[in-house]
Amino acid sequence: MMKKIAALFTCLVIGVMLTVPVPAAAQKNMDTRFEEIRSEAQRLMDEIKVPGIAIGIIRDGKVQMAGLGITNLNDPQAVTEDTVFYIGSVTKPFTSTVVLKMSERGELDLEAPVRKYLPEFSVLDREASEKAKVIDLFQHRTGWQGDYFEDPSSGEDALEKAVRAFRFLPQRTPYGEVWAYNNINFVIAGRLIQVVSRAKSYEQKVKDELFLPLGMTHTSFFMSELMADRFAVGHAGVYDGTSEPQVSFAPFPRSVYPAGAILSNASDMMKWIQFQFDGKDKDGTQLLSTKLLDMAHSPLVEGELSEYIGVTWFVEDIGGVRTVFHAGRSAGATAKMLFAPDKKFGIVVLTNSDRGIEVYDAVIALALKKYLDIEKIPLVAITADRSSLEPFEGLWLGDNEDYKIYFDNDQLMAERLYKPLGGVQIYENPPPISMSSAGEDMVIMTDGPYKGTVGELLRDKSGKPAFLSMQHRIFRRAE
After folding, report:
1. For site-directed labelling of 408, which of 134, 308, 370, 425 has its Cα 20 to 30 A away?
2. CA–CA distance from 319 to each of 168, 171, 216, 307 (Å)?
C-alpha cells in the first residue's frame, strides 16, 4: 500500500503563485514560459526518479514558484514553495557576504593575511599559511586539501577546534597557482567571522546579518528551528532504472556549516536573489553597497573551463549575458541558484535527490532560453586517436572521491569511487561511464547521469600530466 501511495504522490504536481514581501508584485497567473519549465521538470523527475523539487523564478520583480512531487518516499507529502530543503554549498555565498559586510564597515581587510585575525591558523605548508589572505578564502587557489569533514564538536567551539586541526592539512598544489574548489576555506572564513565580530556563534551572526534583515524567516542552519515547516528528506540516486530511491540523510557536522549546511525554501531564496540585484533589506535599506555586490559578481579569477570566480560566486558569460551562480550538494539533496544581475533575472531549483543535478541543469538551461533567449554552447565529443586519450589512464586521487580511468577495448571508461565522509559511506558509486575526447587534453562523459561532464588534464612545466580537473575538483595520479 505504501508503494502505491508513494507512486501516486510522485505524480502529484503542486504549482503555487504567491505575493511575497521581497520582491513585490508577484504574478497571480503563471505565464506559458513557466508552465513549459514546470512541465519539463516533471518529465525529468519521472524519468530520473527524483522524488521532489521546488522552483522559483524572478524577472523584473515578478516571482513565480512551484513545488513538484513529494518530500519523502517513506512519508509522502506534497512539495510546495514553502518546503524546506538543504541547499548545500549554496550556503557559501552567505558566508562571504557577511565578510564583505564586515569589510565595508572597516572591521576587517580583505587583503590582510588570514593570520592577522586568526594567529593560530596554519596548514602543513608554511608559505601557504603565511601568505593566505582573507580574499583567498573565497577564490579557491589556496592549494591545500579542500575536503575534510571531521566532527570535533557539536557546540559553539566547533569551528575553533576544526581550524586548529587544519595544521595537519597537506598542500595539494602550490599556493596561488592552481584553481581547485575548497570547502575548508569557508570553515576558516566562518571562524574568522566568529572571532572578528566576537559573536557567540557563526550561525547567529549570519542570521543577524542576513536572514533577519532579508525576511528569510524559514531559513536556518538548525533543523530544530524549522520544526513547524515541511521538510524534504534526501534520497540516494537510482542508476539501474528499475529500483526506487531510498532515503539518504546525513547532515553535515557543525564544523563545516559555513561551507554547506543552510536549510531554506524557494520563497526565501527569492528574497536572497532579489538582494543580489540591489543589496537592500526587506525594508529597502541598503544592506551591502552595490559596489561590493558587483565585485562579488565579477569575473576576478579564472576557474574551470569557461567559468570565473568573483567572491565565492561562479561567473560565466552565456550568449553575451553575465550569469552568476552557485550549486550545492549534501547527502541526498542538490540545489542550484543562478541569476543575471544585468537582466534582473534569477532562478533557484531545490531537489531532494543525488541525481537532482540532472534536473536542475536542464531546467535552468530551459529557463535561460525562455526568459533571456540565451543558450550555453556545450562541448561535444569528437573523434580522436587512442593515443591522445592514453594520458588519462590511471587512478586519479581526490580528497573525497577518486576516478579510475581505463580502456575497455578501445573505449575509454571512468569509474567514480566515492570515499566515506566523516567515516560514513554517504554516496553510492554510479555505474562505469564512457568517455570520449572533447579536444586537446579534454575528455567528456558520453552516457549516464554525468553525461556532458568535461575533464581536463593540467600539465606541469615539463609537459607531463600533473592533475585531472573534473567537476571543480583536482585529482592527482596515483603513484
Report:
1. 425
2. 44, 37, 32, 14
Show Cβ contacts of residue 78 under 8 Å, excluding neighbours closer than 6 positions. 9, 12, 14, 67, 69, 70, 71
Q: Identify whether the C-beta of residue 123 lies closer than 8 Å to the C-beta of residue 166.
A: yes
CA distance 140 to 143: 8
Rounded to the nearest 10 degrees, the angle between the axes of helix 158-165 and helix 184-196 is 130
- 3-class SS at 79? coil
Residue 52, amino acid: G
d(CA 381, CA 286): 47
pLDDT greater than 50 at residue 4: no
Rounded Cα gap, residues 477 and 395, in angstroms: 6
Task: Report how far apart, in Å, the C-alpha atoms of 340 and of each of 60, 64, 220, 310 are.
Answer: 11, 16, 26, 14
Cβ pair 115, 121 in contact under 8 A: yes
Place of cell 560565466: 316
205 within 8 A of 193, measured Cβ to Cβ: yes
Cβ contact 399:423 at 8 Å: no
Measured CA to CA, the distance from residue 107 to residue 414 in angstroms comes to 48
Residue 22 has pLDDT above 60, yes or no: no
What is the spatial distance between Cα 199 and Cα 332, in angstroms, rounded to a whole number?
Answer: 32
Residue pair 52/70 in contact (Cβ under 8 Å)? The answer is yes
Q: Grid coordinates standing for 220?
A: 536556518
Cα distance between residue 207 and residue 46, in whole Å: 36
- pLDDT tens digits, residue range 207-240? 999 999 999 999 999 999 999 999 999 999 988 8
Strand order in the sheet with 308-309: 13-16, 62-69, 52-59, 345-351, 333-340, 321-330, 314-318, 308-309, 301-302
For the segment 304-326, what is each residue's pLDDT rounded down to a tens digit? Answer: 999 999 999 999 999 999 999 99
CA distances from 19 to 58, 322, 387 (A): 12, 28, 59
Q: How far is CA 147 from the centre of its chain?
A: 14
Dihedral sign, Cα of residue 301, residue 443, residue 454, residue 181: negative
**Alpha carbons 101 and 61: distance in angstroms, whole number:** 24
pTM: 0.91
| Residue 196 CA to its chain's centroid (Å) | 26
Spatial CA neighbour of 329 closest among 304, 308, 350, 303: 350
Residue 313 contacts residue 89 (beta carbons within 8 Å): no
Distance in angstroms (rounded) separating the CA atoms of residues 94 and 138? 11
Q: Would you state the cell numbers that stand for residue 264, as one nine-digit string?
A: 531554506
Residue whose entry in the numeric block shows the C-alpha cell 541558484: 337
Length of the chain counted residue by residue: 479
